[in-house]
Design a protein that fits this description.
This protein is α/β, with parallel strands linked by helices. The protein has ten helices and eight strands. Strands 1, 2, 3, 6, 7 and 8 form a six-stranded parallel beta sheet that branches.
Length: about 240
């Protein structure tokens, strides 16, 4: 961690403020921009009174963090949705197969970890379908949910995903574990921001070094609040039907 952040010198509340500000700066040039100027949106959450949440994990890199996360989920009898990148699935097929064997839901995290909004519609579809092919070959799953790389999208990205029978999934609670902000910060963010119909963003890539340590307490706190963990696909079924 760069020393100039000096998070270790600040109390948790001050650290959380600094991290949130940094996250805004990082995202404003990509995700926030396209959201502001796009008309079509992915799914961020589902409006419901039921105390259900979808815990989700993106994986694009490495084989050290995924297995501890998978074991913690098994120990706590929690099922969740994993969004897996196409190249990663091919590189670590045994982990992807374990995720499937443990009964978790598998979605796509695309192929190259690039902003799809910079591509043509044909190129977007190609990225999605290359990842789809890898996931199918390794796990046998015909994925139909995608969390786009970096959460990036515009109208064309959403249109392209729909045209290849995918649904784009975002999140309404970001754990910020991808910033390695401190275990307590991850726990506090998820535990205090979770709400009925929430889609919670976490990561199981090796770049996220604090996720596994924070996860048991995150699960414990959400269960104590009365939340049930469901797949994203099950959460979508709770969406109000349009008349």
């Amino acid at each position: 961690m760069p020393k100039f952040f000096g998070f270790y010198q600040f109390p948790d509340k001050a650290r959380l403020i600094l991290i949130s500000m940094a996250a805004i700066v990082i995202l404003v040039s990509s995700v926030v921009y396209v959201q502001a100027y796009g008309k079509q949106k992915p799914i961020y959450e589902i409006k419901t009174d039921k105390k259900i949440v979808a815990l989700t994990f993106d994986i694009s890199w490495g084989n050290k963090t995924p297995m501890p996360v998978i074991e913690i989920l098994k120990e706590n009898n929690v099922k969740c949705t994993f969004f897996l990148s196409g190249p990663w699935v091919k590189q670590y097929p045994e982990i992807a197969q374990q995720i499937k064997a443990d009964g978790h839901e598998i979605g796509s995290h695309g192929y190259r970890h690039i902003n799809l909004s910079n591509l043509s519609k044909t190129e977007i579809k190609d990225e999605i379908m290359k990842a789809h092919k890898n996931i199918k070959e390794v796990t046998g799953v015909d994925a139909n949910l995608i969390r786009t790389p970096n959460g990036d999208y515009n109208d064309q990205v959403i249109e392209a995903t729909k045209e290849v029978n995918y649904q784009a999934i975002q999140w309404s609670t970001d754990s910020l574990d991808w910033m390695n902000p401190g275990v307590n910060t991850i726990i506090e963010r998820v535990s205090t921001r979770a709400h009925p119909g929430d889609i919670i963003l976490m990561h199981a890539s090796d770049t996220c070094k604090q996720t596994a340590e924070a996860l048991p307490t995150v699960i414990k706190n959400l269960k104590a609040q009365g939340y049930e963990f469901v797949f994203v696909s099950d959460l979508l079924k709770e969406a109000p039907q349009k008349e």
